[in-house]
Design brief:
Layout: H1 3-6, H2 12-17, H3 23-47, H4 60-71, H5 73-91, H6 102-174, H7 178-199, H8 211-219, E1 230-233, H9 241-261, E2 270-277, E3 288-296, H10 307-320, E4 326-330, E5 337-343
Parallel strand pairs: 1-2
Antiparallel strand pairs: 2-3, 3-5, 4-5
Helix pairs in contact: 3-4, 3-5, 4-5, 4-6, 5-6, 6-7, 6-10, 7-8, 7-9, 8-9, 9-10
C-alpha cells in the first residue's frame, strides 16, 4: 500500500471501510463529529463581528470535509445538516428564524451544492479505498492458493519419487535379467499410472474414487469380473492422493504373484479381498482399516517360487510404510494370506517418506 494512503489507515473512516469499527466506537465517532460542528459554530460566532455580510457558511464548509474525512461520509452528512440549519437560523437575516425568501433559498441551494460535492468526492475516495482493499485481498488469496498448490505439487512429487524409488530398488533386487527388470518396472509403473488416472477422474466411465474402485482397477489385468475367481467385499470408503497409488501398487503386486505362483496360476484357485474398519484403535489411538488378501485352491506355498516370500517380506511393508501401515504376511497350506493394517486417516493423504 502506498505510504500516503498507509498514513491514514488508522483514521476511523478508513477503519470503518475495513469493517474494524464496533458499535460502541461508532457512537463515540458521532460524538466527535458533533464536537466538530460545535467548534465550527463557535468559530463562526466568534468571527461574526469582523466578517462582512454574505459568509454564513464560512466555517461549516471545512467542518463537513473534516468530519467526512476523519469519520466517514455519514458523519459528514450529519455535520452538513447541522451546519446548514445553524447558518440559516443564526447567520442569515432575518436572524433567529427559518424564513425562506429568494436570497435565502439561493444561499442554501449553494450550500447544499458545495457540501454535496464535497461528500460525493469523499464517497468516491472511500469507494476507491474499499476497491483497493478488495483487490489486495483477492491478490493475497490468489497468492495463498498458489502457495498451497505449489506445496501440494511438491508433496505429490515427493510421494511419487519415493514410491518409484521403492519400486526400482526392490524390482532390481528380485530381477534376474535386464529384460526381467524392465518388464517388472513397466508393470508396476503402469499400475501407478492407472491408479493416478482413476484418482483424477480420468479412469473408465462409471468408476468413482473409492477404495473398491482402486482395487478393481489394480486387479483388472488378472481377470476381475471375467471368471468370478476374485471376490471383493467391503464398505464404501473414499480415498485419494498417494494412498490410492500405494494401495493400487500393493494389490497389483499381490495379483501378479498370485497369477505366477499362487491361486490365480491354476484354474481351480480363487482369491478373496475384504476390507473393514476395526473397532479397536491402534496403540497410537488411530482408527484402523483392515484389508485381507486370502488365496485358496492354488499350489501349496512350499512348492511355489521362493522369490515370492522375498517379495512379500520387502516390497509390501516398505511401500505400506508410506501410509504408516503394517503388513502381516503368511503362507499357510491353502495359500497366501496377507493382512494390511492402515490408519483410516491415511486414506485422505499420505506423507512423503519411504
Amino acid at each position: 500500500m502506498p505510504k500516503r494512503i498507509g498514513a491514514f489507515r488508522k483514521l476511523p473512516s478508513f477503519r470503518a471501510a475495513r469493517g474494524e469499527v464496533g458499535r460502541r466506537e461508532s457512537v463515540f465517532d458521532y460524538a466527535l463529529s458533533l464536537s466538530i460542528f460545535l467548534v465550527a459554530y463557535l468559530l463562526r460566532e466568534w468571527l461574526e463581528p469582523v466578517l462582512p455580510p454574505g459568509f454564513p457558511f464560512l466555517t461549516f464548509f471545512p467542518s463537513v470535509v473534516i468530519a467526512g474525512f476523519l469519520f466517514g461520509v455519514r458523519h459528514g452528512i450529519l455535520v452538513a445538516v447541522l451546519g446548514g440549519l445553524a447558518s440559516w437560523y443564526f447567520f442569515i437575516p432575518p436572524y433567529g428564524t427559518f424564513q425562506l425568501d429568494k436570497g435565502t433559498f439561493v444561499a442554501m441551494l449553494l450550500y447544499v451544492f458545495v457540501v454535496s460535492t464535497d461528500l460525493f468526492l469523499l464517497s468516491l475516495m472511500m469507494s476507491a479505498y474499499r476497491a483497493e482493499l478488495q483487490a489486495r485481498r483477492d491478490v493475497e488469496r490468489m497468492a495463498d492458493a498458489q502457495e498451497v498448490m505449489a506445496n501440494e505439487l511438491d508433496h505429490r512429487l515427493k510421494n511419487v519419487f519415493a514410491t518409484m524409488n521403492a519400486i526400482i530398488t526392490l524390482s532390481q533386487r528380485h530381477a534376474t535379467t535386464a529384460s526381467d527388470l524392465a518388464a517388472k518396472l513397466k508393470e508396476r509403473l503402469n499400475a501407478m499410472a492407472r491408479s493416478s488416472l482413476l484418482l483424477r477422474g480420468r479412469g473408465e466411465a462409471g468408476h468413482r474414487t473409492t477404495l473398491s474402485a482402486v482395487f478393481e482397477q489394480a486387479l483388472q489385468p488378472f481377470g476381475l469380473g471375467d471368471s468370478g475367481r476374485i471376490r471383493l467385499t467391503g464398505p464404501m470408503l473414499y480415498t485419494n492422493g498417494q494412498s490410492g497409488v500405494v494401495m493400487s501398487l500393493i494389490l497389483h503386486e499381490l495379483g501378479t504373484n498370485a497369477a505366477k505362483y499362487g491361486a490365480l496360476s491354476v484354474t481351480t484357485g480363487h482369491v478373496s479381498l475384504a476390507w473393514r474398519p476395526l473397532e479397536q484403535p491402534s496403540e497410537n489411538g488411530d482408527a484402523l482399516l483392515e484389508i485381507t488378501w486370502r488365496e485358496r485352491g492354488g499350489p501349496p506355498p512350499a512348492s511355489s517360487n521362493p522369490d515370492r516370500k522375498g517379495f512379500g517380506s520387502t516390497l509390501i511393508p516398505r511401500v505400506l510404510s508410506m501410509l504408516s501401515g503394517e503388513a502381516i504376511i503368511s503362507f499357510p497350506e491353502e495359500g497366501a494370506f496377507v493382512t494390511l493394517l492402515v490408519p483410516l486417516e491415511a486414506l485422505k493423504d499420505a506423507p512423503a517418506s519411504v
